[in-house]
Amino acid sequence: MAVPARKHSHARKMKRRSNVWKLQAPALSICPECGEYKAPHRVCPNCGKYRGRQVIAKDED
Fold first, then answer.
1. Taking the mean position of all CA atoms in its chain, how far away is CA 27?
2. What does the DSSP assignment read for 1-61?
3. Stated pTM of the model
4. How far is the C-alpha of 47 from the C-alpha of 61, rounded, in Å?
5. Assuming Cys at both sites, which of 5, 24, 31, 48 could form a disulfide with 58, CB separation 3.0 to 4.6 Å?
6. d(Cα 19, Cα 52) in Å, to the nearest integer?
7. 8-27 burial string, b = 16+ CB within 10 Å, else e?
8. What is the pLDDT along the chain (61 residues), one digit of tens a residue?
9. Where does residue 44 rank: exposed (0-12), middle (13-18), buried (19+ CB within 10 A)?
10. What whole-number distance in Å separates Cα of residue 35 and Cα of residue 9?
11. Could you tell me the maximum CA-CA distance found in the chain, to the nearest angstrom?
């Protein structure tokens, strides 16, 4: 059974694991009604519409 002769350094170990902790940017799409960014397949938090239908009643200021 093969056994490493020497301990891997902390830097070498962290270099190998560097991709584990990368954060991904959230997927955002543009609402066709108001033009604000929103999560795909979700109701727009700004205008309250989803696929052209009013789902959440929003007060118009």
1. 5
2. ----SSPPPHHHHHHHTTTTTPPPPPP-EE-TTT--EE-TTS--TTT-EETTEE-S-----
3. 0.57
4. 11
5. 48
6. 39
7. eeeeeeeeeeeeeeeeeeee
8. 789 899 999 999 999 888 888 888 899 999 999 999 999 999 999 999 999 999 999 876 5
9. buried
10. 50
11. 72
Structural tokens at position 30: 């543009």
The amino acid occupying position 9 is S
pLDDT at 42: 95
Q: Which residue has the tokens 């350094």?
A: 9
